[in-house]
Amino acid sequence: MTNFIQQIVSGLASGGIYGLLALALVLIHRSTGVINFAQGEMATLSAFVCWTLISHGWAFWPAFGATLVLSFAGGLALETTIIRPIQGGPLLGIVILTIGLLIAFNGLDTWIWGGAAKQFHGPFSTAPIRVGGVAFSKQDLGVIAVAFVVLALVGVLFTRTRLGLGLRAAAVNPDEARLVGVRVPSMLALGWGLAAVLGAIAGVMAAPSLFLEPNMMQTVLLYAFAAAVLGGMDSPLGAVVGGLLLGVLLNLVGTYVHWIGGELRLATALAVILAVLLVRPSGLFGRAAARRV
Amino acid sequence: MALLSVRDVTRRFGGIVAIDDVSLDVQPGQIVGLIGPNGAGKTTLFNVITRLYRPDSGRLDFEGKSLLRTPPHRIVRRGIARTFQNVELFRTMTVLDNVLVGAHSRTRPFRGGAARGHVQEVLDYVGIAGVAHRPVAGLPFGTLKRVELARALVAEPKLLLLDEPAGGLNHEEVSELGAFIRKLREDFDLTVLLVEHHMGLVMGIAERIHVLDFGRKIAEGSPDEVQRNPAVIEAYLGADASAA
What we know:
- The structure holds 2 protein chains of 2 kinds.
- Chain A has helices at about 1-30, 40-55, 60-85, 90-115, 140-160, 160-170, 175-180, 185-210, 220-230, 235-255, 265-280, and strands at about 130, 135.
- Chain A is mostly helical.
- Chain A has a domain at about 15-220.
- In chain A, a hairpin with a 2-residue loop joins β1 (about 130) and β2.
């Protein structure tokens, strides 16, 4: 029984990270209509920037703040220089471009910081706390708390502000959005900037438990995709809940289904994607998009 | 001074001249009809006025100032809103969100709440408050037209462009629509430019009518004048009818 609870608690901790990155995927999908395969590598790059600032003697929180600002600027720059020229073309083009960015950022990280894993001391202690035989750390609790705080902010942005409505409108129907007064190009740039910020939060929160190295977020990205699909590609709440559910599911299945174990973890996540797409394509919290033909 | 003044506007698509040297004025407070057979260029003219298309030549003035120097996304802020023939909405969003987006040009970036009171009034006014929280995808066409109208109204336009508002309505609904458009003009202090195929509706409510045919303006006048104009009868019924 203790082991069962332990697996759930550990699952929630890794699920928080999946959820944070899934939130970034949902944000960019909702505000620009794009599936961003480079999201994980953007997160890793941001984590490296934060690590560099800390290793130059900055305290964590100022370094984290500066990283978010730099990531936002980087996201804007990425959209205006690389994405915008092919915006409006076939969606596949942009998706392939994000795969190119994945490879480029990964190479850049290795080139600048090398491939060796680095210790990253986050704001929360990773020292285990034991409650009735179940171990967890402040880091685990911190990640989950951060995921929910970010979720709340994204929720307010999308549903309670003119800016969030403009972001959604620009993604759904750019021509019409322009007619009601939305500056569509600015909205798309903003979408990328905000997604880079959410990625940075995910990267920095993940780094203390995963060790910082250029491939840190690669498998996390796949889990984040599974989480986003599970929760509904357009639902911020779905992304976080999907992440937590997935984390728990993977841990339980890995522990109690012996032929899956640790080796088929990734395959299990992919099976989740497949099952959701077959049974409920809009995900747990997504709205079924009926199309009038 | 005319509220909207279109001067010698031409717009080509490849070899086709969709609008050919068209001029027309819309006076403040009027309901103005824009009619013509299919393909006459009516919707293209709407698209030029709202800057979805740039004219190849000519001038567009609104309240005496050029529209061509206004960036497309600022057109609505200057006071021009429109609806579409086939309804253009944000499909995945709710009725309320669709209408809230319409208030975009009248709200500040991080303030959504301020617009909500006004939006609620307009939802009530056009009779769609009951479906406010439903996604627009899947609602009946008539309801979608109301959503689109509400979205245009919350932008607080001076000039409202209506593209075939009677499309898809039955006989009874069309006569209600005529009275409704008049009431809209009074309640929202609007000028209305209306593209419509339903002649009964246009002739009943428009004070002035412009007729397009193959991209050219062939007639202008009061409903009576236009109905007696030989060029108009020819465009609609063919040369034989006007000779008969």
